[in-house]
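ugh ok fine here u go
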Amino acid sequence: MISRKSVFDQYLGRGPRPLSCHHFSSLFAWKDFFEFSFEVIDDRLCVFAGQDGESFLYLPPLGGELDASTVKACFGRMGKSRIARVENISENQLPVFKDLGYNAYLKAHEYLYRRKDLEDLAGHAYKSKRHDIHVFDKQYPQAVFRAYAPQDLKGCLSLYSRWAADRKARGENIAEPDVYRAMLDDNARVHKLLIEHARELELIGRVVEVDGVIAGYTFGYPLDTKTFCVLLEVTDLDKTGLAAYIFNRFCADEAVRGFELINTMDDFGMPNVARTKKSYHPCQLLPVYTVKGT
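structure:
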């Protein structure tokens, strides 16, 4: 599937990129779960995700401004499929679907921050974050924040296994623990795939090493010239302050410093993740919609 990246990027470059899904890694991450097909309709690239012989449109057609005739053609292509829908629609694209009479519902919000705020952590609002980083620095002065290298793969995957086991054991006060555990298992495959192919996907990766062991990793990508998206972040839960430390260092990294905004995607409907993301004081919440047929 990696061979399709050049085609995806070609059409992606011809239009706006309002949400985190506008990067090839967002498809590639789920290639083991969906059968993706690329079709050009009305000079727009339409990415369909197949499942059990049926399909939905993974994101709105790429290649320029959204057009009503293309939308109708896509729904025609999906036919009476029980899963026929368009995912990952931004707020400014919604009127096209509503004018056609399609039913829209809010799926999630993506969290957007001013990068400089996350680098400086200045003022009372970020007092707890500065404290967490200070605790980590004091306890682990030998910690090394550095670029990911291919030889780190085994250490990153080992960290994910420990992290996921710890998350399952803690429970996190999750309403549907079975769903949560399944999500952690699915994401083990996703993280492995993305880290293995980080170079081909043009992901920027950083790790934190403590006493020769990978204790944290994070990966992201430029969404556009203004916004950088943080795609993955996993840290050793036993190391107090490490999550704040790696996020701060990543946002201040030379590879990220040229961007004005940081997108950390959505909170997966998990209250603990939402609390953490809100505690960094986003400057904007970007609504993400799903549209179904009439």
